[in-house]
Amino acid sequence: MLNINVLLCGILAFYCIHNAYGFLDVHIHFSKGGLKGKMNQEQCSHLDKSMVKREEWDAMSPRQTFETQGIGKDVIIWQTGSETCNLIGLGQSTCERCLHDAGCIKRVILALQKDDLDYGLDDIKYHFLIDEEGVIYEGRGWDVAGQHAVGVNARSIDVAVVGDFTHTGPSEAAQDSLNRLILCGMRSSKLLYSSQLIVTPSRAGRAFYDVTAKCHGLCVAEPQK
């Protein structure tokens, strides 16, 4: 029997990729990457300095690392999901406050790393993470290959927005920081200028996917110079 996702890819001319669990997923190809504006060197330097580095969230050392092979081709967007706060013992009633508190977010990211290590990965799976306030956290960083899917690990960058976006999309601040991060990745030759965003319901959450589909990319204004 023909897989329904394969059928959709053929009928709707969507692009298909294998996700970490081995089945096909559907994503929309965003023209020009779905990004807004440009970033200059000064803006990118400020973004890098304001990023929360690994040592600031008490990251554990990776078991091993493998360098990326060439410039990044795709940016795969994730949500950390509905179980995010459970990793540090918080229920839904206190989770929302946690996800807007810098100290609590650092605990969450460390817990995500521990969870990935327990799963058998060499490090936290994401290259970068962004919270709802728009703060960017360093994960693997630009130059370390991912581990999410065989065949695309060496040429893609994984960025997670912290939270669950099944029913509600991410904040404009989070999307703006994501937009700026990718633009600076292109400027510093970490990403191809032809890079595309990959936003799927299974990875990023249905509401996140719907928001980007509606805006044909990230729903942000162009960065001010």
Helix content: 25-40%
User: What's the SSE pattern?
Assistant: HEEHEHHEEEHEHH
Q: Round the Cα radius of gyration to an integer and report it.
A: 17 Å
Strand order of the largest sheet: 5-4-6-3-7
This entry's quaternary arrangement is single chain
**Topology, number of strands:** 7
* N- to C-terminal distance: 53 Å
Give the rounded overall mean pLDDT. Answer: 83
Examine the coordinates and then state which fold CATH places here, giving the name of the CATH topology: Lysozyme-like
- Could you tell me the strand content as a percent range? 15-25%
**Quick one: biggest sheet?**
5 strands, mixed
Q: CATH homologous superfamily - what is it?
A: Peptidoglycan recognition protein-like
Q: Note the overall shape.
A: globular
The level 1 CATH classification is: Alpha Beta
Q: Which spans have pLDDT < 50 for at least 5 consecutive residues?
A: 1-26
| Secondary-structure class | alpha/beta
CATH architecture: 3-Layer(aba) Sandwich
Number of helices: 7
Overall structural domain count: 1
Domain Peptidoglycan recognition protein family: 49-204
InterPro entries: Amidase/PGRP_sf (IPR036505), Amidase_domain (IPR002502), PGRP (IPR015510), PGRP_domain_met/bac (IPR006619)
Family: Belongs to the N-acetylmuramoyl-L-alanine amidase 2 family.
Keywords: Signal
